[in-house]
Amino acid sequence: MWQIWNTRAEAHADVTYRLEDLDAAALLRLADLVELDVSEEDAARALASVPKDVNRRNRIEGLTWRRIEPIVGQLAAHYGYRPPE
């Protein structure tokens, strides 16, 4: 599951970002970190080509926060996610 991957990857990460918070400035910092020459225009164009909610679609009918919170709630909170109201 994602929490195993995230926990292991985070232990070795130089930086972490929530994808939905990624903006052109952050993308440029990430490109610089891996020594890619990316212009501000290219970064903005790349971000504009992907909807902000690209990964928010419901995939499993009946899956609710109430059902998964005991499993993922603590790590989700660590990443700044809050239960829906």
Describe what this molecule looks like in 3D.
The chain has one domain. With 85 residues, it is an all-alpha fold. It is globular, with a radius of gyration of 16 Å. The protein has helices at 2-10, 24-33, 40-48, 65-78.
The topology string of helices and strands comes to: HHHH
Number-wise, the strands total: 0
Proportion of β residues? under 5%
Stretches where pLDDT is under 50 for at least 5 consecutive residues are none
Overall average pLDDT = 86
Give a short summary of the structure.
The protein is 49% helix and 0% strand.
List the helices and strands and how they pair.
Layout: H1 2-10, H2 24-33, H3 40-48, H4 65-78
Helix pairs in contact: 2-3
Could you list some keywords that capture this structure?
mainly alpha, 4 helices, 85 residues, 0% strand, single chain
